[in-house]
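Figure 3 (text version): structure tokens given as input.
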């Protein structure tokens, strides 16, 4: 009975329920607003010292959660009135596909990245305050929700390619132009390792998106084959 109860919380009826989706929508929306406020000083600094063209590359985590919020909003639009569970369409347009791929890849990437930076800084002597614990929990949640909602994504390989190009270009701007998120002072002498870690997370996120698409493609192909028999 315990196993059944635990499995329910990662099941489609639970994750796709209207209550769960609304809860995640509100939480991610508030987290997005908080994230942009968190980056406000760096946004002003970037505008004054680099130019407005660099602003989109600064607030990495809140932009990721913004796209995940949009993805959840789309699922709310797809909630079946009778069952109360989200049923996304079999195929989606390129715009929705890009939103979904962006939500997955960047939410996973920056969820892991932020936690790693917080605790790498702490390991090297940076002080830990209550906000660090809050950010750790919230960013782990970002990475977890991106993976938990794998069954609801409907993006295409083309969408993954577009988001992959943006994600890697964002890394190039962050560590090429120097607009990466502000780090604890204890980590400033480790930028080379951080750059490699960040790019590595990008490729892992892209690989996860491709694997999820392949699993769905093969599963969908088997269903169509079964129906045709």
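Below: residues designed for each position.
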């Amino acid at each position: 009975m315990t196993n059944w109860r635990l499995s329910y919380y990662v099941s489609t009826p639970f994750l796709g329920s209207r209550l769960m989706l609304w809860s995640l929508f509100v939480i991610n929306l508030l987290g997005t607003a908080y994230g942009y406020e968190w980056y406000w000083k760096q946004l002003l600094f970037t505008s004054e010292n680099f130019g407005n063209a660099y602003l989109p590359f600064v607030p990495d985590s809140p932009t990721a959660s913004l796209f995940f919020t949009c993805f959840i909003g789309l699922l709310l639009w797809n909630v079946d009135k009778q069952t109360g569970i989200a049923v996304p369409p079999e195929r989606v347009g390129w715009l929705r596909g890009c939103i979904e791929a962006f939500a997955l890849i960047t939410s996973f990437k920056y969820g892991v990245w932020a936690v790693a930076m917080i605790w790498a800084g702490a390991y090297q002597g940076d002080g830990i305050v209550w906000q660090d614990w809050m950010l750790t929990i919230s960013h782990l949640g970002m990475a977890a929700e991106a993976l938990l909602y794998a069954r609801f994504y409907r993006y295409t390989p083309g969408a993954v390619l577009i988001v992959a190009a943006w994600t890697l270009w964002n890394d190039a701007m962050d560590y090429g132009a120097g607009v990466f998120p502000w780090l604890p002072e204890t980590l400033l002498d480790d930028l080379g390792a951080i750059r490699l870690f960040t790019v590595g997370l990008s490729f892992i996120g892209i690989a996860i998106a491709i694997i999820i698409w392949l699993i769905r493609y093969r599963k969908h192909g088997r269903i169509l084959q079964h129906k045709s028999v």
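The radius of gyration is 19 Å.
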